[in-house]
Amino acid sequence: MSIRIVFAGTPEFGAVILEGLLADAEPNGSLREGGAAETLEICGVVSQPPRRSGRGLKTVPSPVARTARERELDLITPECWSKEAASFLREREPDYLVTAAYGVILPREALSLPRRCALNVHASLLPRWRGAAPVARAIEAGDRETGITFFRIVEGLDAGPVIERHRVLIGERETAGELTERLARLAAARLPGCLRRHFRGEAREEPQEERAAVWARKVEKGEGERNWEEAAETIDRLVRAFDPWPGVRMNGLRLYRVRPVAESGEAGTILSVRPAVVACGRGALLLEAVGRPGRRAMDGEAFLRGLRLRPGDSLKERRFS
């Protein structure tokens, strides 16, 4: 017996999960549960259209679309959920529409077309961090754990009943990019089993507790512009939360890797060059890797020495370009 799936996704997070489903669908799938009778069949893929990217602004397909083409899957890339997308889904008669960072809100019609349900893969432990940037906001808030939630999609944003949650601890120095990649791999490994359990009627759907809902608003580019008056711990969290995008900058100086240290002084003052330590509004930061706009990251000590800066000098008003 096969479980028919239409997959909808856009970025690398979705591509990793699609690859996981495809690996399981192979006759000797590396992720398949032992003795599983149901075969996963990817009968179509939906992704956002190609976008301009990179310095040359070349039009490139999304990672999910690229994977679908490489694996010779039926693919459409509508600008939004359209009549074309509805027809594509209807013609394939899937048991599940699985979405993972698709980036388009599905209309009611789309939710009613799969025979079993529309299921979303979300990178948090719902109802905490509903919305566009769950990984970044979890790191920014200093959360110690997060995870993956598989849930039935309803009309409310990330509000549907939970089918399964899978928890992980957040690494002490882990960035949003690293954690997103780890969560994608986790979802790729656990989603096939979840689909089979739900298909067999073995998975219980549990309503989310609305009182516990926390929103993960979209990260805006301007949020990366910070100042030395903030607490060292806050800046450290933001550096990791906004890596790889939009990054954290102090008057143009990009902070790539920093670490809070138990020192103090006037905000923006260089406390030492070897190692490179700068005072913040509360505490201080060890600058492990920094860089000027458009240049590669370099060791913080080498950066300060290259500017001939000394302890007692201030970075507070200095602009970098």
Output mean pLDDT.
Answer: 96
Q: Using the CA coordinates, give the radius of gyration.
A: 23 Å
Shape: elongated
Total domain modules: 2
Approximate strand percentage:
25-35%
CATH topology of the largest domain: Rossmann fold
Strand order of the largest sheet: 5-2-1-6-7-9-10
Annotation field: number of helices: 8
Measure the end-to-end span: 61 Å
**Could you name the ranges where pLDDT drops below 50 across 5 or more consecutive residues?**
none
**Main β sheet profile:** 7 strands, mixed
Helix content: 25-40%
Q: So, CATH architecture of the largest domain?
A: 3-Layer(aba) Sandwich
Name the CATH superfamily classification of the largest domain: Formyl transferase, N-terminal domain
Structural class, by secondary structure, is alpha/beta
CATH secondary-structure class of the largest domain: Alpha Beta
Number of strands: 18
Taken in chain order, the helices and strands follow as EHEEEHEHEHEEHEEHEEHEEEEEEH
